[in-house]
Amino acid sequence: MTLAETRQLPARILNDFERSHPQPLVLVLNLLRVGSLLDKEITDYLSRYDLTGPQVGVLRILGHYYEHGRDGMPLSEIGECLAVTKANMTGMVDRLERDGLVVRESDPTDRRIKRVRLTPKAHELHGRIKPGLLQYLTELMAVLEASEKEQLLDSLGKLRRVLGDAAVSEPDGCDLGVVAQ
Amino acid sequence: MTLAETRQLPARILNDFERSHPQPLVLVLNLLRVGSLLDKEITDYLSRYDLTGPQVGVLRILGHYYEHGRDGMPLSEIGECLAVTKANMTGMVDRLERDGLVVRESDPTDRRIKRVRLTPKAHELHGRIKPGLLQYLTELMAVLEASEKEQLLDSLGKLRRVLGDAAVSEPDGCDLGVVAQ
DNA sequence: ACCTTTTAATAAACACGTTGACTATTAAGA
DNA sequence: TCTTAATAGTCAACGTGTTTATTAAAAGGT
Questions:
Q1: CB contact under 8 A, A35 and B31
Q2: Domain residues of chain B, as ranges?
Q3: DSSP letters spanning chain B
Q4: Which one of A69, A152, B13, B28 is least enclosed by Cβ atoms within 10 Å?
């Protein structure tokens, strides 16, 4: 029974349905569920490259900034892009460094900062992964009509704003075009 | 710049934008971001009760089934409802049991099964949490118009189906009305 | 009846996320 | 200048998720 269909039910039944499954709760549970399913799907796809979703996120950020002439990025700054704490970045960079995909370099102008830089291996790997992953995601999203995708993006933008996403509405910031305001 | 606005740009600029930020990728990143922000938001709200989102998920499932006369649920079955592995359920139930919110009981008819049951403390706690949490989520979702919520639910349902969510379209199954097909 | 396959739960090892505490360094203000 | 506050990174402890392997019990086929 879709929510739309409940609209056509007698008031008594609608009330019963609404009482046990209020629409906002249903909405939130669906958002969380799609997020986790999408995460699993991407993790699964990337397992053939021995990479995880968050790891590719880091490669994507660093790759994008590299293409814009900024080589080497502080851990905290990467964390802001990914909406993740700097403590978490320490572990992420540890594992990427262990796998030879990034290096930590000291910043000569500020000795607190460690700049993370992609290795040649990572540049090659990311370039090899990107097209296929994009193709894969495009196929997944193809279940939605063009107008539906526009609307979805718009709604998600509103939710990001109400949820206080710092990366929303940064013109050419770390958000990489994810902004849907 | 919204996706809609890019529609009105000269083809050359649109191509540049599309090349670095293809819409399907933007869509996926937004879905993942909203999922994680929502998760943090709920975690934060529930911290005052010393509970986590997934823990309340278990209470919600067990509470719902209890109200329908089914007291005690196998670990695996809870896992199916939450789209989570049974290995994960072991740890979840461990912590809930440690906190005195559930008990494991042996099933007399099938000695492989442990049935998880809510304690009185959990019933009381869940009843106390539910209204406020629902109110909170309702306020969050209030940024969306009614028609927008309907459309969002519809799109999320399509995504859940293409992502192979087992709980989709189970009439009165463990999905608790989350189905938006 | 016996053997094989499936199923339920657990455990170990790992990735990822949090908070809170800590060190080192830089920035700011009296 | 000297004290104080803010910032970058790390670490420890924890919760949640995965996969893989193991044990025990149930189910099925010959």
A1: yes
A2: 1-49, 51-166
A3: --HHHHTTS-HHHHHHHHHHS-HHHHHHHHHHHHHHHHHHHHHHHHGGGT--HHHHHHHHHHHHHHHTT---EEHHHHHHHHT--HHHHHHHHHHHHHTTSEEEEE-SS-TT-EEEEE-HHHHHHHHHHHHHHHHHHHHHHTTS-HHHHHHHHHHHHHHHHHTT-TTTT-TTSTTTT----
A4: A69
Identify the pLDDT of residue A15: 45
Predicted TM-score (pTM) of this structure: 0.88
- C1' of D8 to CA of A163 (Å): 26
CB spacing of B141 vs A35 below 8 angstroms: no
Write out pLDDT tens, residues B54-88: 999 999 999 999 999 888 999 999 999 999 999 99
CATH of B51-166, one of 2.30.40.10, 3.40.50.300, 1.10.10.10, 3.40.50.720: 1.10.10.10
Please provide the average confidence, as pLDDT, over all residues in chain B.
86
Nucleotides of C under 7 A from a protein CB: 7-13, 15-21, 24-27
List, for chain B, all residue ranges whose pLDDT scores fall below the cut of 70: 1-20, 168-181
**How many contacts (CB atoms, under 8 Å) link A and B?**
207
CA of B53 and C1' of C24: distance in angstroms?
36
